[in-house]
Each structure stands twice: as structure tokens, then as C-alpha cells.
Amino acid sequence: MSRPPAERQVSRTIAADQRLSDELTRIGIDDSAASPTVLFLASGVAWLLIGSLMGLIASVKLDLPDWLGGAGPITFGRLRPVHLNAVTYGWISLAGSGMIVWLMGRLCRTHIRWTALLFLSAILWNIGLFLGSALVILGYSGGMEWLEFPLPAAAVIALAFILFALSMFRTFAARQVEHVYVSLWYILASLTWFPLLYVIANAGLYQGVGEAAMNWWYGHNAITVWFTPIGLAGAYYFIPKVIGRPIYSYYLGLLGFWSFALFYNWNGLHHLVGGPLPTWAISVSIVASLMMFVPVLAVAVNHHMTALGHLSMIRYSPTLRFVVFGAMSYTATSFQGSLEATRSVQEVAHFTHYTVGHAHLGMYAFVTMVLFGAVYYIMPRIAKWEWPYPNLIKVHFWLSAAGIAIYFLSLTLGGWLQGLAMNTPSIPFIDTVNLTKPYLWGRAVGGTLMTIGHCVFAYHFLLVIHRAGPKRFAPVWFRKAEEVAAP
Amino acid sequence: MTLLPALLVIVIVAIVGASLALAAFFWALRTKQFSVKQLNEGASVIFDSVEHVGKPTDQLFKKPGLQNDEQTSG
């Protein structure tokens, strides 16, 4: 039995009011996050360019060792750590923080609190990065991978992170949503654990073998409690949001998070298989690495089943294109990492380029690609300006995808052959080095493609910030609050 | 700091980290984050009445001629 016309009219009016209210609320929340988000994202993009350039020069130096070899500051041993720190603590951390600020507003459905702390945090973070990079270039490296920045620079970055976390926790405390969405679990965990980890690792309390143990406990846990949660938080938000479909199994999502929290932080010492550490410590780490199949499968099944039947939308959505690429890479790099932790695989892969390929599969193909997707989604909504040249996004995607594919395949194959050769006593060491040369060129080619893609991305990013280029009305048009509210 | 004291520090930090995780877990239990109701509805908190379930929100590569009411406005 149909309702009377008057009742239908009332229902329609109430629904229209609700839609108007929801849209204004969402735009208001996005606006509250806009300035700090742009500051973090723009800083991240700047460090991406710096880090890419450093990485490219370092990569070419592996092929041409005498190139730019005349001065200490531009030797491989200084440029390579600057590359690592610029892309991890610069690009991924800063762009990831920008994404977190924006997601925090959306997931808590409230305005961002204590934004002054966020501005201070971004400024300090950039100062710390600049100081640390300059000191490493001048030869004052801490000497441990992932911890090259000397104490003064690390202290500034730690302070910046704590200020950032305070603002985010304050926003969380003011949330208007009872339920904590799975992305938020990953974000809150990273905000709690990473400052603890970073401060302890930089405290300089260790020496000798203990220092090596701490180094890799930190190195792997930085990925565990900071970089991976950034990628997973993004994937868990953007895949369902872009498709317009809730994640396949919310139960599986939470199982994935809690098993991730339980197993992942034990993984670090598998980097020291064969080292002078207690066997039990390394064995525990290997077992925990294999247990990572549980959360990884939970995430992989969830993302795959959510996208199943909607993958054609990749054609239309730049965000989905990057994020799905990242999510698939997460599964791949995690499976590879678990197997790589075993003693039998490490017999060959340890101390080879294979490990470098694996690291880039995680940090680039997974985390960085998710972040690119996030930036493509967030920026138009806070700048109220659509990306002016969609073809540039396609160019960026294919340069990045092809670049990382060439990079990963070259180093995986070359590294494995290198390991087999090093395990053969009859092969002179110099032959194991010469064997890798073609694969190192592959690495440089892949890095070049990625760097060109980053330049395209940065140019396009600048256009959106300045609301430049052709104004696009379709298919997506982002409106300001006053335009939505206008009758 | 030699190996055993270093491992001790790592173990202590791990216990602190794990304690924080446990505290979060019990907070989640207390606030009924894992109740059947919240688990069933939780996946939808990223949607609202405008960007609702069934509505894609990122269609930049779609040609204007292919527009339909699935396009987003916010």
C-alpha cells in the first residue's frame, strides 16, 4: 500500500535535509584538515623529488663507480643514506601524515583539533630532515641503516612526531562516531608505537652485537608500526570508498589488524640470520615472520573480495588504480618477506641485491603507490579543484608501475644469481660482482622511469595547489560549502 | 651496552608496547567495539547519505558522455 503524497513529500524533504547536512559536515571537516594536510603533502612531494634524485645518482654510481667520485659529499656511501631517509622519513612519513590528518577528520567525523601543533610538527619535521641530510652528506652519519641521522636531527624529528600524535589523539578523543573503523585502528597503533620505537632506537644505548640487534629490531619495526599501517589504513579506506561498497568482511579486517599487532613486531631479527645472536632469538623472529601469513591473508582476501566484480572501475578512478596496485603489492611483498625470513632462502638471498628489490616492493610498490592514490583522492577535495590533466595521471601511473616492475625484477633475478654465485667457492668474488652489472643497469632504468613519473606527479600537484590549468566540471565537480548551501 | 642488556631493553620495550596493545584491546571490549552490532555496521561508517553505498566517488577518467547519477558532487 503506497503512502499518501503528503507523507512522501515529508520523507523526501527530510532525506534532502539529511543529504545537505551530511555534505556540509563533510566539506567542513575536509576544510578543517585542508591547510595541515596540504603542508604535509607538499613537504612529502618535495622530499620525494630530493630522495628520487639521490637514489638515481646512487644507482647510476653502481654502474659507473667513478662518476661524481671526486668529492666525499657525493659518494655512494653518503648519497644512498640520504636517499633512504628522504624517501622514508621525508616522502612516506610526511605524505602519510597528510593522509592521516585528512582520514582522521573523515573517520572521526569531526574537525581537526590542535592544528597549530600540526603546523609546528610539519615545520620541525622538515628542519629535522634537512639537518639530518646535511649532516650525513657532510660525513656525520650514524652508520646504521635506517638510523643514519645523527642525534640532533633525530631528536627534532621525534619531537615533531610526538606533536603530530598529540593533535591526532585529541581529534580522536573528540570523535562523533562511536565505532573505530579498521583504518583508524592501524593509524592509532602507529601513532602509539612509532614514537616509542624511534626514541628507543635513537637513544644510543647500545654497542657491538647489541647494536646490530637493536638496529634490525628498529629497521623492521619502522616498517611494521609506521610505514605498513599507513599503506593499510589508506587501502582499507579508499578501496571501499571509491567503489562505493563496504569492505567484504569487517570481521576479517579486525582479525587482520590484531594478528598483525601480535606477530609483526617480532620480525626484525630475521635480518641477522647467521649472525652472532642467540639462535632462539632469530628462530622466534623467523616463526613470527611465517605467522605473518595470517594477517596478510586476511587483508589480501578482504581487499580482493571487496574489489571483485568492480575491478573495471580501475579504468575510471586514478585513486583505485594506484591503491589496488599497492594492495596487490602488499600481498606479494609480504609473502616474499615471510619466505625470505627462512634460513634456507637467506642462504642465497642474504647480502645480495635481492633484498634491495624486496625492500622496494614494500616501500614503493605497496606504500608509495597507495599514497599516490590517496593524494589523487584527497587533493581535489581540499583544493576544490579537480586534477586538470587526467592524462598526466596515466603517464605517472605507467611510469611508476613500469619503473618499479623493471627495478624489482632486475634486482630479484640479479640478486638471486649473485647469491648462488657467492655460495660457489670456485667462483672468484669479482666475478660475482661483474655478474650483477646488467641487472644494476636495469635498476637504474627502473629508477629513471620512477623519477620521471615523480616529476610529472609533482608538476600536477603544484597545478592543483594553485588551482591552475583547465577547470573541469565533469565527471567530478567538487563544491565549496557555500555553493552546496546556496538554494 | 652489550648484547644481553640490549636484548633486555628490547624485551622491556616490547612489553610496554604489548601492554599498550592489550590496553587498547580491553578498551575496545569495554566500549563494545567488537559487538555484533558494531561489527555488522562498522564497515559502513565511511559512507553517508550523499556518498552512500553503491555510489562510486572517484571517476576522473570517465568520459563526460558516460555520466550518470553515480557521479559524485562532494
Provide key terms for this protein.
heterodimer, A: 487 residues, mainly alpha, Cytochrome C Oxidase, Chain A, 2 domains, 16 helices, 76% helix, globular, B: 74 residues, elongated, disordered C terminus
Order of helices and strands of chain A: HHHHHHHHHHHHHHHH
User: What is the count of distinct domains of chain B?
Assistant: 2
Give the oligomer, counting copies of the same chain as homo and different chains as hetero.
heterodimer
Shape of chain B: elongated
Largest interface, counted by CB within 8 Å of the partner chain's CB: A-B, 74 and 55 residues
Helix content of chain B: 40-55%
Strand content of chain A: under 5%
Written account of the structure:
The complex is a heterodimer of chains A (487) and B (74). With 487 residues, chain A is mostly helical. The relative contact order of chain A is 0.09. Helix content of chain A is 76%, strand content 0%. Chain A starts with a helix and ends with a helix. In chain A, helix 7 packs antiparallel against helix 9, helix 10 runs parallel beside helix 13 and helix 13 packs antiparallel against helix 14. Chain B is mainly α and 74 residues long. Chain B has two domains: 32 residues; 40 residues, no CATH class. Helices cover 47% and strands 0% of the residues of chain B. The longest helix of chain B is centred in the N-terminal third of the chain and has 28 residues. The radius of gyration of chain B is 23 Å and the shape is elongated. Chain B starts with a helix and ends in a 32-residue tail after the last helix. The relative contact order of chain B is 0.07. At the A-B interface, helix 1, helix 5, helix 6, helix 7 and helix 10 of A face helix 1 and helix 2 of B.
